[in-house]
Design a protein that fits this description.
7 helices
């Protein structure tokens, strides 16, 4: 929840003062409000400063899902919901032992690409897949190039490409 608070605050240029370590605060804020500045070198520097790649992947997962939900809520004319109180417990610490360094900023499995960007942490990849299925298409639907719902697949892709361009999202 502290990462989510920092991410939201960064989008309004305010300070959440969520009590995170400085490096974690920097990552939450940068991924949320300055993603165009995230580079391979920056991620490598985070590792040099002691951030585990899985921790970085978790932050990217939390921040990206929050941004997607917040953008959807604003897009339908509603207000962002208050973030819930944190639940007690520890992270699972589960890692995907099959990830490998390739050309992405983080190790991935089975290959590089937006679809596998969070694959180093199985819980993050699963959460991304679940939200992706609700806001766009499921993995199975993505494989069907003739998929039709309210919009045709071609219309969905055109809309997604335009939104990506407007948001400086290049994957």
């Amino acid at each position: 929840m502290a990462v989510a608070r920092e991410a939201r605050a960064a989008r309004t240029f305010s300070d959440a003062d969520a009590g995170l370590p400085a490096l974690l605060t920097e990552v939450a804020q940068s991924v949320s409000a300055a993603a165009d500045l995230v580079t391979r070198e920056w991620v490598s520097d985070l590792r040099d400063q002691g951030m585990a790649i899985e921790e970085y992947v978790e932050v990217v997962g939390v921040v990206s899902r929050l941004a997607a939900v917040d953008a959807y809520v604003r897009g339908v004319g509603s207000h962002e919901e208050a973030l819930p109180d944190p639940e007690p417990g520890e992270p699972t610490g589960e890692r995907n032992g099959q990830v490998r360094w390739r050309n992405a900023f983080v190790p991935t499995y089975p290959e590089d690409g937006a679809r596998y960007a969070l694959s180093a942490v199985p819980a993050e990849e699963e959460a991304r897949d679940q939200l992706h299925a609700q806001l766009y298409l499921s993995t199975e639907q993505m494989a069907d190039l003739a998929y039709q719902d309210v919009l045709s697949r071609a219309q969905m892709e055109l809309l997604a490409a335009r939104v990506s361009l407007l948001n400086d999202c290049f994957y």
